[in-house]
TrEMBL record:
Natural source organism: Coregonus suidteri
Lineage: Eukaryota, Metazoa, Chordata, Craniata, Vertebrata
Keyword Protein transport: no
Protein name: alpha-L-fucosidase
Signal among keywords: yes
An individual GO BP term: fucose metabolic process
Enzyme class: hydrolase
Length: 131
């Protein structure tokens, strides 16, 4: 890492470099459907808390604000439903290892004010068949 990045480069500095410029949800749908798959499970949030949709329960650490500036979950869900019979599954990492609310959560506020509202949000918004 030190060889390729400045000394003060942090994990969060990667996010603006994630542009998804070559990502095409319909192309993914076509490839996955032609493979014979019956469903897709998309990672909607990784362990560091970066969401691939514009979560109302997330600070500015999401794909609609940083990097691609797109709702990638919405694009995948829309392409699957419009162009295939594939079933949509969403993987949502429940915790956020670097979120201070999680790391200092003696009162369980992370679960009640962040994790569960975010989970309800993606279920209600994208209506996955698998979770």
């Amino acid at each position: 890492m030190q060889k390729n990045y400045p000394p003060d480069f942090k994990y969060q500095d990667f996010a603006p470099q994630f542009t998804a410029e070559s990502f095409d949800a319909k192309e993914w749908t076509d490839i996955i459907a032609s493979s014979g798959a019956k469903y897709i499970v998309l990672t909607t949030k990784h362990h560091e808390g970066f969401t691939l949709w514009g979560s109302e329960n997330s600070w500015n650490w999401k794909a609609v604000d940083v990097g691609p500036k797109r709702d990638l979950v919405g694009e995948v869900a829309g392409a699957l439903r419009a162009h295939s019979d594939l079933h949509l599954g969403l993987y949502h990492f429940l915790f956020e290892w670097i979120n201070p609310l999680f790391t200092q959560d003696a009162a369980n506020l992370f679960t009640t004010t962040k994790m569960l509202p975010e989970l309800y949000e993606i279920i209600n918004k994208y209506k996955p068949e698998l979770l």
